[in-house]
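U., I forgot to send this yesterday:
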Amino acid sequence: MCLGIPGQIIELLEDPPDLAKVDVAGVKRNVNVGLVAPDGLQAGDWVLIHVGFAMSKIDEQEAVTSLEFLEGLGQAYTDELAALAESSIE
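Result:
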């Protein structure tokens, strides 16, 4: 099962462009934000992430609600976080 997971932007990286360091439930990884960059992103914003790409910008309430739902999925959510922790986008 593949899930979109909310993450909060810690910082936008300048080199390479279109990458941001994002915190997803305590896991910090670089993700590609090129698909949502035209929406104007900044540190503190929330994005919905799937396979290393930010798919959309979301508000904090939607992020909290989504995280609560995902935590209720149990093993599928745990597996997705483990895959994220093992991934690396440089």
